[in-house]
Each structure stands twice: as structure tokens, then as C-alpha cells.
Amino acid sequence: MPDSKGRLTQDDFNKVKLWFDEKTEGRLSNCPMCKATQWATIDLLGEIRISTKDFVIGPGVKALPVLSLLCKKCGYMAFFNAAYIGIVGPTLVEEEIGHDK
Question: 27 is in which domain, residue-wise?
Fold first, then answer.
């Protein structure tokens, strides 16, 4: 679980590494833009907001917690659901849309 400022802890980084090693069988994927294999994990959780038909900012807005990977060569970013990785517990949005690990 990230600290009070939202930064990933060492335990979180260990979970991320284990999850990625399991999913990629230990091979770094190439960046889809520049084909480099130099990735950095952003140490803050982000969010992707889920909107209904009317775009709303404020109370009641739903969001998915995301972990961001950054290509060190070109800046391309990839986002992964932090609940799938196990960094945060399932959110209400995941419970509504469901997910299989």
C-alpha cells in the first residue's frame, strides 16, 4: 500500500517486480514507440477517471488506480491497474466491472 503521500513503498516495488516477472516471464518488453527496453516505474499512483455520459469533475467521480511505466528513451507511458497488481485493494469500480486476475 502506498505511503501517506501516495508514493510506492519498497514492498510495493517488490510486488510490481514479481507481478511483471510473472506476466513477462522475466523478459523486458520493447517500447511500442521506439523499441527500447529501458523502463522506469513512476513511484506515485495515478488514476484514470471513469465518467458517465456527462463529464463530471467533483464528488462522486469514479477512478481506477494506475501504476505508470515510463520508457526512459522516448517518454512513452504504459498504465496498469494497481488493484490487479495488488498494490491497492479492489475499488468500487473494479467491483462493478469485475476483473479476472
Answer: 10-97
In this prediction, residue 95 carries a pLDDT of 56
pTM: 0.76
pLDDT digits (tens, 9 = 90+) for 38-87: 999 999 988 888 766 666 666 667 778 899 999 999 999 999 999 888 88
**Cell 526512459 sits at which residue?**
72
Tell me the DSSP string of the chain: ---TTSBPPHHHHHHHHHHHHHHHTTPPPPPTTT----EEE-SB-EEEEE--SS---STT-EEEEEEEEEETTT--EEEEEHHHHTSSPPPHHHHHH----
Q: Could you tell me if residue 36 is inside a domain?
A: yes
